[in-house]
Amino acid sequence: MLLQSEIASILLNGLQQGAIYALLGIGLTIILGTMEFLNLAHGALYLVGAYTGLIVFQETALSNGLLYSLGITTMGFEGGFLAALVIVPAFGFGVGLLMERFVAEPFYDRPETDQLLVTFGLALIVEETIKNVIGGNTFQSIAPSTIFGVNVSQPISLPLVGLFPSWRLIIIGIAFLVIGLTYLAIERTDFGLVVQAGTRDSEMVRLLGIKINRSYSLVFALGAALAAFAGLIGASIQTLSPQIGMDQALIPAFLTIVVGGAGSVRGAIAGGLVLGVIVSAMTQTYSQWAQIVLYLFVALMLIFRPQGLFGTAEVGE
Amino acid sequence: MARETTALSRRDVLKASGAAGAAGLTGLAGCAGGGGDSEYPALGNYPVEGDEVVFGFNVPQSGSYSQEGADELRGYNLAVEHLNNGGGWVDNWDGLSGDGVLGKTVTSVEGDTATDPDTARQSAQRMINRDNAIMVTGGSSSGVAIAVQGLCQEEKVLFQCCITHSNDTTGSECVRYSFREMFNAYMTGQALAPVLAEEYGEDLNFYQLYADYSWGQTQQASMEQFFTDVANWSQIESVPTPLGTSDYSSYLSDVPRDEADVLVLNHYGLDAANSLPQAIEAGLDQDMEIVVPLYNRLMAEAASGSIDGIFGTADWNWQLEDDASQSFVEVYRAEHDRAPSYGARIAYTQTLQYAAAAERAETFYPPEVIRELEGHEYSGAGLGSESMRGCDHQAQRDVLVMQGASEEEQTEDKLLNIVSQTSQDDLGYACDAGPAAECELGEYGDE
């Protein structure tokens, strides 16, 4: 493979993987930064998103499922995934609200070890519940084959890269659209201002008379919605099984915020992309070293820049 | 059977000398054992006390191969039910009568290997020490099988392999206390290479991805050997991928589309369920043929839209028309409402094999059970005539070459078509060749 096309291919694969890391990282980082709450159930939210996506995808598939049983057999396009794009983040948002109220809030003032234990326990409960309710089966990825009549199951030819799965190109676009909107919401809105201020000094925000508890709920729910959305994106390219929350989401999410810096949305985006490209580059060149180099890179970040790329030294102290 | 006669006479000799000599010297503990089975010294979990005998089913209930584990358990539980109450193959296999084993009711304990050798070893250790399992069985993942069979050799408890396809299991890592019904990667290469050469032609270039652990490594080596020697193909490159990889896109991006004629995906379980659809998604099937040397149902189900026409091998398939296969399919379907996978068949077979050997030996004393299994010939396991070879404990049996069915052809049970049943006469290797050349079985425990 030519060097230019190899680099292009690494970047594109890295972008796709990095987008999922960034989505996870943003969710985790705003919860950690704002509330100083370590959420080990973040992977479980990814899992919830993936399975909700699966159910929505199946139930709205027009050849069978709920809509079919109601007599709706044509919508002009393959509606399952589009419906999931709306329903999954909304459901994740709802789960986040409940989780903040009933799991996180009682533990805000408790030691971090308690937070870790309760959220890890919650992650296990979610995983086991899915195993018991839906089963431990593996499900096929839920990518649609057409969108608005356009075939997206075939690869398309890109300059330099060559053939690339067209669905992956689309999800890169969708993921970065959501990342961009989240970034704007946090950088350009009053809500975002409160979130940002909260990540720096929540006491001061409270003293200014801002009802930060309501913001806490919204931040937590937004983080959960992003994790669920990442799960939906992941489920569209990989098979689903109950362990993906731990394996594919939780660790990458933490690595992302270590690299990007806790509490920084910009950092989560940068961290996700950096990690995505590292994994992609190593896999494509020296695959056996991929994991070692990944963790080595994170370790070096911790040693030489513990606050991460965009983090502030105060956060987490 | 002639085999049983010789085994019986050997056992009689041992009884006579053992009662007077070995038992007296090696310890009297065994002599206090119950169940009228006390002519041998205590060894491992022998003698079996009480009215029940415990089998340990150590399967992956989590991790990459967890669905295989669920199917294995279904096979194991069916075997226990039939051993205790009759039915299934019990009625057709010599020595088994459907009233337990050696007059004892069979009970079982289950463990989760988590598809991880260390966890599996700990789980098996618990079964041996706490539950007094007289036999442990399980797999999937050769890494797990090799770890557990090593432990079983140390503990003098029999291990009946389930899904394990690495050459090492009955090759360099073989042990006296383990037996394998499943075929191995070497035999996959022998069965697959001629079919592929005929189908795709000679002088092709192939590129391999393989799961980076015991199974994947021997699988890769066997494919390289037979595709090169038999099909006359050339390997471009062979790339390891970590077990449990979910996104193969970077590995697949690196496959040289211009050079490669065949892409060999040496993945299994969840890994294969990801790598194959992703290869198709990337359009690699437009530029080259894809081969999945070892099929399994999980992968075929998860990748159902992608397996059309793809070749591989399988341990067994419910579509085989012989009486044994069909009777197993019938009892399994009655219980679980669908056809069994090959994982269920191996689990069922290996459990019955142990039970029948104990019945023939008339004791649970491990060395005697081992001697009954070594060289035993049998034909009721759905693959025609088979034998459990004494020199490496590898079953000598036929291998099925399969091809993925088209989407229109596929049903819940039928995902693959049987292309051919390669006779064992065309497979295998001598005791001093292939993986067996590296096998040293170790001790019986009564030397």
UniProtKB/TrEMBL annotation, chain A:
It is found in: Cell membrane. GO terms for cellular component: plasma membrane. Belongs to the binding-protein-dependent transport system permease family. LivHM subfamily. The keyword Disulfide bond does not apply. Coiled coil: none annotated. It is a multi-pass membrane protein. This is Branched-chain amino acid ABC transporter permease. The chain crosses the membrane at residues 20-38, 44-67, 79-99, 167-186, 216-237, 249-279, 286-304. Signal peptide: none annotated. Keywords: Amino-acid transport, Cell membrane, Membrane, Transmembrane, Transmembrane helix, Transport. GO terms for biological process: amino acid transport. The keyword Transmembrane applies.
From TrEMBL, chain B:
Keywords: Signal. The keyword Signal applies. Transmembrane segments: none annotated. Residues 53-405 form the Leucine-binding protein domain. The keyword Signal applies. PROSITE patterns: PROKAR_LIPOPROTEIN, TAT. InterPro entries: BCAA_transport, Leu-bd, Peripla_BP_I, TAT_signal, TAT_signal_bac_arc. This is Substrate-binding protein. It comes from Halobaculum halobium. The lineage of its organism: Archaea, Methanobacteriati, Methanobacteriota, Stenosarchaea group, Halobacteria.
